[in-house]
Every structure is written in structure tokens, then in C-alpha cells.
């Protein structure tokens, strides 16, 4: 209790023709104001679904959600659609990977940035336009007074991303959820957008959840990291802890696909073979066991295929290996061969 965003024992299930998809299981985490939590995992790990559940953007007819989500003391899991609508774009906002899913081609950039501001503050059209210009300036669009009347197709990809950030921040949200917001951009623009987000966070004091499949992207961005696999959190800690001394074999694999971060270390780690687990028929025991090269190495009769490892509160990993093994196997992985 007491944390700004609190998620407790969240389960998200979808009904499909083939059965029940267990998309998110037993998930708990917190995010404080002014802090950034990076949620890392492959597609299908549950990271995007978790955030759609927070925003109340899941399909209520095919989705079952249990557990507790509270934002600033307000319970969201049982909230009405009307309540959720008053919070979305206002108290919490989202930045998507593809600005064209958020921006309509038919309206000017200025109108689209001003729209949530009008809706949630009751501002006039003229005030909303002024606010849109102010926001375009904040996100670094040159000549905002003229660009405000442009349509999305008149903006470059990087500028559209900035416009979407302006739209997300126009009501000064307390919680900002960014789902792979820079994946489609080239590395230089990506770095600029990340810097921009950090600056805006300083100014607005928002809590940020940053979702990505790429640990490198959030290395300089997140205060804390939660790694998800197969609909479960498998490791968490501060960014420094997770990057310097990762404890879960899956995280070791993720680090290997991170060329930007310390080339020395990552080049020697092996990428993970195999495919993500089925969420219709998840593996027994540890969800990672079908891909884990350490699964037979756990001492003391503990079974990776039979016993589900639990994620401790605070720093730790959901893995049966002993602390000593976690250290030595990781070091072995990064030793020159
Ligand atoms: Fe690998 Fe076993 Fe640890 Fe799972 S619990 S990550 S299978 S060693
Ligand atoms: Mg996704």
C-alpha cells in the first residue's frame, strides 16, 4: 500500500476458440511518481497485456481480470468504463509504437493534441490550440505556430512520435505508459526521443512504465527493471542490479541481444534458442525450462519441470538455482571462450 501505482496478484485470461489464454499470471509490482519501470520481454510475455489492463483497454467480453490495480489510491480493476474514460488521456496516458495508430490522418496535429485537453479541462478551442502550440514547443517541434495546423502526413516519423508524446502529455498525466515507443525509429532519433521523455518526466514528475523487448533501450532510462516471460515476472531489481548481475538465465539471454550495451559482455553471451511458451498450455514448473540449459543443475531434489519457482519481493529472480550458481553461471557465460 502507499505506492503510486500498485499492481497486486494480477491475472489476465482471454477466451479464444482454442481455449483460455493465460496471458498474465500472479503479477505484482509498484511504480512511484517520477520513477520509470522498464518492463522487458519478448512478444507474448504479457508486458503489453498488463498495460492494457491498467488502462482498461482490454475487451471486457473476452477478457477476465482478477487482482488489484490501484492508481494514487483509486481502485481501477472494478472501475466503470466511465471512470476509466475520465482517467485515460488525463491522469494516465499512453504512447504507442506506431504514431499512426494514435493520430488520425483527417485532423490537424494541433486539433488532435488539443482534443484531450478540451475534453478533460473544458478549455475552449482557442485555448486548446494555444496549449497544442505550447506542447509542440516542449517536444521540440520547430515553428510550432505554423506546424500546429499540419496534418500527420506532413510530419516525419520522428516528428509524429514527438506529436504523439505531446498528445499524451497534454493533460499532465501522473502515469505514462510507453509501449515500444522508439522501435520504429532510427537509432539517432530514438536517442533523441528517449532524452526528450526523460526531460519531460523531470518537468512533469510522471511515473513511466516503459515496455520494450530491448534491454539496451531502457538501460539509461529506467530506474527499475522487471523481466517478463511466458506471462510471468521472472526477474526484477534496480536497473544497475539487473544489468550488472542478472540472476535469471532468460535475462542472460536477453543481454546477449543487446549490442549497444557493453559490447564486450554481450558479444560473448549466447542468444536464447527455442520459442516462447504457449499461453494456452503453459509449461509445468518453471515456464523457461524448455529453453533453459541449466535446468538439470539445480541441487536438492528441486525440479525445474515440476516445481514452479517464485519471484521474491524486491530484488530477485524466479529461478531454482542457488545464489552461488546464479553468480558463477553468469560469470561463466561472459568469460572469453
Ligand atoms: Fe532454468 Fe530451472 Fe532456473 Fe527455470 S528454474 S530458469 S529451468 S534453472
Ligand atoms: Mg507489445
From TrEMBL:
It is a peripheral membrane protein. GO terms for molecular function: ATP binding; ATP hydrolysis activity. Keywords: ATP-binding, Cell membrane, Membrane, Nucleotide-binding, Transport. Residues 7-255 form the ABC transporter domain. One of its GO terms (biological process) is peptide transport. The keyword Acyltransferase does not apply. It is found in: Cell membrane. Its main location: membrane. Gene3D superfamilies: P-loop containing nucleotide triphosphate hydrolases (3.40.50.300). InterPro entries: AAA+_ATPase, ABC_Ni/Peptide_Import, ABC_transporter-like_ATP-bd, ABC_transporter-like_CS, Oligopep_ABC_C, P-loop_NTPase. GO terms for cellular component: plasma membrane. CDD domains: ABC_NikE_OppD_transporters. The keyword Transport applies. Belongs to the ABC transporter superfamily. PANTHER family: DIPEPTIDE TRANSPORT ATP-BINDING PROTEIN DPPD, OLIGOPEPTIDE TRANSPORT ATP-BINDING PROTEIN APPD. This is Peptide/nickel transport system ATP-binding protein. It comes from Streptomyces radiopugnans. The lineage of its organism: Bacteria, Bacillati, Actinomycetota, Actinomycetes, Kitasatosporales.
